[in-house]
Amino acid sequence: MEMTIDSSMRLVVVGGGVVGLSCAWRAAAGGARVTLVDAAPGSGASWVAGGMLAPVTEAWPGEEDLLALGVESVRLWPGFAARLGEAAGREPGLRSEGTVVVATGSGDRAELETLASYLDGLGRPVQRLSGKELRRLEPAIGPEVRGGLSVPDDLAVDNRLLLTALRAAAEKAGVAFVARNAAGVVDDGTRVAGVTCDDGSVVEADAVLVAAGAWSSALHPALDAMVRPVKGEILRLGHRAGAFPAPSRTVRALVDGRPVYAVPRDAGGLVVGATQADVGFDLEPTVGGVRDLLRDAERVLPGVAEFALLEVAAGVRPGSPDNLPLIGPVGPEGLLVASGHHRNGILLAPVTAEAVVAMLGGGAVADVVRVADPARLLRRANG
Amino acid sequence: MEMTIDSSMRLVVVGGGVVGLSCAWRAAAGGARVTLVDAAPGSGASWVAGGMLAPVTEAWPGEEDLLALGVESVRLWPGFAARLGEAAGREPGLRSEGTVVVATGSGDRAELETLASYLDGLGRPVQRLSGKELRRLEPAIGPEVRGGLSVPDDLAVDNRLLLTALRAAAEKAGVAFVARNAAGVVDDGTRVAGVTCDDGSVVEADAVLVAAGAWSSALHPALDAMVRPVKGEILRLGHRAGAFPAPSRTVRALVDGRPVYAVPRDAGGLVVGATQADVGFDLEPTVGGVRDLLRDAERVLPGVAEFALLEVAAGVRPGSPDNLPLIGPVGPEGLLVASGHHRNGILLAPVTAEAVVAMLGGGAVADVVRVADPARLLRRANG
């Protein structure tokens, strides 16, 4: 069912990452007049991301709401990708090979067993595999890996193909792109009026969706302190002639307590990530961060030593105070936010876009999305 | 003394790296009509280089000729840099802080002692320092370093400032730049006639200097097999707020037998290199190569963990069969080569340019350069 939005509604989306583009595309397809404000759409955290769609291997006791949200979104992903491919006239790069999560030392194995038992308890059993069984599935996995879990439903997408497809689909659906940085959301005390840009121009709006990732909090006082930057370093590797083939599944690993992942790409490439650091708006990869990623990736997939190191990058994810995203109305009437997705922006784009379109059209928002209501943070701050 | 070259001589220099640019500048300053053919002057191995001017710490028993050539060139460097700065109107980035070479394990210390004894025997004594003394000189040096040598006369230059200055000086001296790739040198069986470009155009010449680095051998049959590519990976690091300051001297090290160096740059940056591999024309940095450089640099200078990793690159040095450069006439009349400088192109640029200008002007070539006569390789091939 497609939601219908009042076609006189002028929606301005601030931010052209995966969340902003997805919402803009779906809102325009649903009938809204959409303008997207971003000086460089498709750059930022969405561009440097790994593209895991992996809520189950990302699960952790106490984060049931985030797991439910992620599972719902990964369920939506194949349909979202199919519609996107058709609308854009190009494939968005969804991969269906699944995920394994593996452990090296005994502490790492104990932590994976905690995850497996937790999932058992939730009625989401996962398959436990020995090192030998893992190597039978993925011969690229090295001898230091002693065991792991197979989760075929945790998928992945090529985030750069995805961004290109989203932009094409948004353009075809009539989204107007304003290539400027947004400076703030303007309101008259009760309703939003538009978005000011850093050159002083104003884009008028009946509704504004702030989807500016880690930069969201600066755009309106109502968003203050809701989102903080969480730096991550990530590498892009290319297969070279003579090198051992890359795995076909996403390989997540714990190496002496440090998480690392390798997400396969077409042509045998791998995206290896990601560090995490609360160090503000810092987009510089460090020697120590890259050294950790290279060392840990090699311990899990020794053959990557012969791969090309094509790219070293850092991005800032939008972290929220409780690790859940912010999806819903906030502050003056007509202001919505879709941010705070932290490590899960690409995973959660379909469920976020569906919820935003429902909110704009006055439809019912899926139950699992209610936990993302930004009002919870105001309650917390006031209580 | 400035050499004077017949002003009717049309010299074509193939290759706009540090050697080609230096020769073109000096030849044009000496009176020649010079054209430099390169699709991208100032790129290639000269651009990715570290910029060490360090013949003494590079010395090794059996390579006395190379040492003498390097010592002569490092002696020329301050004057060359001063003339270049004046001619270009910008500083070429020469640093006068000197070099230390340090060792970690006992095998590394033994190898450094071999170098020191060798230099003692040549009458070029170097100062032996304990780890503590080294750390007093350069507090950035870490506790794994147990000893080393100080060589104040081994210098360094910022190779990128140098290339910019050389290009400016060459232009001001009247060098004409043809932004095309050379395909080959044309001759009539006895004399060179010009250079063909990959678009089929021909640049006519009375003399041709091939200074095309690792690509030199392909340009004329007389250069066949004289130069081969030797791949090297190299990193550029930037100081970040809060990180320990970089050393002020060049720090060369042996880490479990692997050589690594860190060359200081302005603003606290470091260039860390370099791997060596005989793998053909391969310009892709690998995971294994970068991992080695990061690990070894951290073992010598632990503070670099907090530095920014600004750039990862690979280049191909022009290696010669006997590790000495090729400077002099070869093949048909009017054909000269200045290539095969391997790891020492930037160091040897002044002595090479001086020799080439002397050869073009009919002047005397310095004794130390005679060993670089390409005829030695023909004799070897024929003998």
From TrEMBL, chains A, B:
GO molecular function: flavin adenine dinucleotide binding; glycine oxidase activity
GO biological process: thiamine biosynthetic process; thiamine diphosphate biosynthetic process
Top-level division of the source organism's lineage: Bacteria
Record-level GO cellular component terms: cytoplasm
Pfam families assigned to the protein according to its UniProt record, in alphabetical order: DAO
Keywords for this protein: Oxidoreductase, Thiamine biosynthesis
SUPFAM superfamilies associated with the record: FAD-linked reductases, C-terminal domain (SSF54373), FAD/NAD(P)-binding domain (SSF51905)
EC number assigned by the record: 1.4.3.19
Keyword Cell wall biogenesis/degradation applies: no
Residues of the FAD dependent oxidoreductase domain: 11-358
InterPro entries: FAD-dep_OxRdtase (IPR006076), FAD/NAD-bd_sf (IPR036188), Gly_oxidase_ThiO (IPR012727)
Catalysed reactions, as listed in the record: glycine + O2 + H2O = glyoxylate + H2O2 + NH4(+)
Pathway(s) per entry: Cofactor biosynthesis; thiamine diphosphate biosynthesis
PANTHER family for this protein: GLYCINE OXIDASE, SARCOSINE DEHYDROGENASE-RELATED
Protein name: glycine oxidase
Species annotation: Pseudonocardia sulfidoxydans NBRC 16205
